[in-house]
């Protein structure tokens, strides 16, 4: 089984220390391919549209904030995995 190194050693990056992590290439590929399920993606789009129109309820606003935060974290994980694989985001 091949292993990809996510970070070569402890490095200081933007005032944060990053650890060395080794993972099977297949696992890194899976992380790079992560996406919201279609229903979640559609819900996010619906909530963003309602927000643009100024029609969000308080509970919808909280749900939108949570989904946006999760989406941003997912995008960062994907970007890191793609960097390890030597690819650019699509």
Detailed description of the structure:
The structure is a single chain. With 90 residues, the chain is an alpha+beta fold. It has one domain (3-85). Helix content is 57%, strand content 17%. It contains three helices and four strands, in the order E-E-E-E-H-H-H. It has helices at 25-32, 38-52, 58-85; strands at 3-7, 11-13, 16-18, 21-24. Strand 2 (11-13) and strand 3 form a beta hairpin. The protein is elongated and about 45 Å long. The two termini are 27 Å apart.
List the helices and strands and how they pair.
Layout: E1 3-7, E2 11-13, E3 16-18, E4 21-24, H1 25-32, H2 38-52, H3 58-85
Antiparallel strand pairs: 1-4, 2-3
Average pLDDT figure: 84
The percent of residues in helical segments reads: 55-70%
Strand content: 15-25%
Helix-strand string = EEEEHHH
**Strand order across the biggest sheet?**
1-4
Number of domains: 1
User: Which shape, going by the Cα principal axes?
Assistant: elongated
Task: Return the structural class.
Answer: alpha+beta
Return residue spans where pLDDT drops below 50 for at least 5 consecutive residues.
Answer: 1-11
Count all strands and give the number: 4
Number of helices: 3
Largest sheet: 2 strands, antiparallel
First-last Cα distance: 27 Å
């Amino acid at each position: 089984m091949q292993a990809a190194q996510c970070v070569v050693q402890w490095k200081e990056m933007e005032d944060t220390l990053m650890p060395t992590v080794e993972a099977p290439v297949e696992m890194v590929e899976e992380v790079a391919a992560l996406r919201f399920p279609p229903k979640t993606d559609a819900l996010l789009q619906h909530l963003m549209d309602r927000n643009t129109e100024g029609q969000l309820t308080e509970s919808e606003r909280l749900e939108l904030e949570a989904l946006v935060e999760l989406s941003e974290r997912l995008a960062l994980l994907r970007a890191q995995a793609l960097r390890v694989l030597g690819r650019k985001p699509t």
